[in-house]
Amino acid sequence: MIIIEPAIVGLFILIAMLITMIAQCYIAHKYTESFESHLPNCKYIIDNRDIYQHAGLIGKLIRTGSISMVLATPKLFIWRGLAKAEEIHNFPPQKRRILLCLLTLHFTLLLALVLSDFLFPTT
């Protein structure tokens, strides 16, 4: 039986998280305004932009993450009156795919890190 060192598993997950975070920073820095331009009447996005526009890269990361959440759960935001269905439907598919892939990667890697603690306990 092969013995897997828990620290190695955690290290691989943390490296993957770091690479994903670097990609998220690049995309947020370069394309946040472009993403927001596709949702000009979305109250949630407008409010986040007003709050975080002077927060630098951290603000852009928060704004990009909030756009990802709107695209991931559109019915919730439409139901609450925070987004328009037409705008979400007309969001460019390639940009939607980028944002949703990043969101999925972040959640998956976080779950993997949490589960690795239970699957490979260090006693």
Tell me what the structure shows:
- The two termini are 20 Å apart.
- The protein is mostly helical and 123 residues long.
- Helix 1 packs across helix 3 (56-72) and helix 2 (43-52) runs antiparallel to helix 3.
- The protein contains 6 helices and no strands.
- The protein has one domain (23-116).
- The protein is elongated and about 55 Å long.
- The model has no long low-confidence stretch (mean pLDDT 89).
Key attributes of the depicted protein:
123 residues; mainly alpha; 6 helices; 79% helix
List the helices and strands and how they pair.
Layout lengths: L5 H32 L5 H10 L3 H17 L1 H6 L5 H5 L3 H27 L4
Helix pairs in contact: 1-3, 1-6, 2-3, 3-6
Series of H and E elements: HHHHHH
Our count of helices gives 6
Strand fraction: under 5%
Shape: elongated
Structural class: mainly alpha
Q: Quick check: average pLDDT? A: 89
Q: What is the tally of beta strands?
A: 0
> Percent of residues in helical segments?
over 70%
Q: What is the first-to-last residue Cα distance?
A: 20 Å
Low-confidence stretches: none
Radius of gyration, CA atoms, in whole angstroms: 17 Å
Domains, number: 1
Largest sheet: none
